[in-house]
Amino acid sequence: xxxxxxxxxxxxxxxxxxxxxxxxxxxxxxxxxxxxxxxxxxxxxxxxxxxxxxxxxxxxxxxxxxxxxxxxxxxxxxxxxxxxxxxxxxxxxxxxxxxxxxxxxxxxxxxxxxxxxxxxxxxxxxxxxxxxxxxxxxxxxxxxxxxxxxxxxxxxxxxxxxxxxxxxxxxxxxxxxxxxxxxxxxxxxxxxxxxxxxxxxxxxxxxxxxxxxxxxxxxxxxxxxxxxxxxxxxxxxxxxxxxxxxxxxxxxxxxxxxxxxxxxxxxxxxxxxxxxxxxxxxxxxxxxxxxxxxxxxxxxxxxxxxxxxxxxxxxxxxxxxxxxxxxxxxxxxxxxxxxxxxxxxxxxxxxxxxxxxxxxxxxxxxxxxxxxxxxxxxxxxxxxxxxxxxxxxxxxxxxxxxxxxxxxxxxxxxx
Length: 415
Fold this sequence. Notes:
By secondary structure, this protein is an alpha/beta fold. The chain has 3 domains: 17-33 and 46-66 and 79-106, ACT domain (Alpha-Beta Plaits); 114-188, Alpha-Beta Plaits (2-Layer Sandwich); 197-413, HAD superfamily/HAD-like (Rossmann fold), CATH 3.40.50.1000. The protein has 15 helices and 15 strands. It has helices at 32-41, 79-92, 125-137, 165-179, 211-219, 222-233, 239-248, 257-264, 271-280, 293-303, 331-345, 362-367, 378-383, 396-399, 404-411; strands at residues 18-27, 47-55, 58-66, 96-103, 113-120, 141-149, 154-161, 182-187, 197-200, 284-292, 307-316, 319-325, 352-356, 370-374, 386-388. The protein is elongated.
């Protein structure tokens, strides 16, 4: 049925048409919603809007309905009768009722709609107040708030209208850093629910380790390699030059160490949950790494990743030569690979998510529709769209509007 074919009685009320807001409060139990609508049905009113929230066993049920007219009633004949009947029904269930007269539907939401996700560990009243005030300062209105997760962090989402997404990001990013909470701002719309591509850095993102340092420990040059790695991640050294310098320190190492390093790699807490949940939702998932295919290939197989690209250690006669082969995966290379993966996946860049922690991830983070700095260096946190500063990789799911309950429900599903 097209919009033009909707019967007049089912259309939204005009601005001047009288309506009633019926609010019910009290201890939740089965049958309250059905009971209220059974009561309202006697007055042949039309339902304009409904909101229901249950918090710690207490229900708040709001229903906006058209005001009954004398010739519409079946057992009652007026607004006064409806009010008396609803109050009587509520009292019989030890509930409170409030009925407010007004005109028309809810006021239209402002131009510009965004989802603002806030992660706290814990989430304090002080930080929540500051975030809400910052939203108001941009001209935004909070239309709805709901909780996405209560552990391992508290995650809540604000549905905001009346402010542009970029303006919200600009205002909320410094506020979040000051409050030590994580805030992500994404535009509302169908794109948020569309199939996506998520691409992650590997070292210190998907895994807890820096792979080259694991190799260096076996070569006895861990300190030297770690020093160069730290400088490169801070953006103080050219990545390609630092890569060659570090790999050269591994020259002569027996190739059998590759298997040892693979066993030493530790996934970041929540990594399996993140990938598993994304895959179940139909997302495609990939990794790009300044590390080595000798490790990323194994991770791709273990986790069922759709894409993977990294540098390759050259091995000749069973020994590491101290060189890498092929094109270097550096800062620019990661962004290029994100575009390549998106093209192969058939996903527009605006629907891609990139996750990383180092300066060499910045181009990739800024190329993606949503760039997430994960426990990142300060220069990366300041440049990315949003930052996550808790040690659980699956908290990225909340930034995509996925609740903890949905994750757990998926985990109970038998494949």
